[in-house]
Specification:
The chain is an all-alpha fold. It contains two helices and no strands. It has one domain. The longest helix is centred in the last third of the chain and has 22 residues. Keywords: Membrane, Transmembrane, Transmembrane helix.
C-alpha cells in the first residue's frame, strides 16, 4: 500500500470528522486532514518519474 493512498484516506477521514458539529470531532478531523496533507505532499515530490 502506497503512503500517498494512506494520506488521501486521512484527508477523507478528516473531512468526514470536520463536518460534524461536535468541537472535539471537528478538531480530530482537522488534525487528520493536516497529517494526511503532509503525507501526500511529502510523497508527491519523491514520485517523479
Amino acid at each position: 500500500m502506497k503512503k500517498q493512498n494512506v494520506g488521501f484516506a486521512l484527508i477523507l477521514l478528516g473531512i468526514i470528522f470536520a463536518v460534524t458539529v461536535e468541537p472535539l470531532f471537528w478538531w480530530i478531523g482537522v488534525i487528520l486532514g493536516v497529517i494526511g496533507f503532509i503525507i501526500v505532499a511529502a510523497n508527491a515530490s519523491g514520485n517523479e518519474q
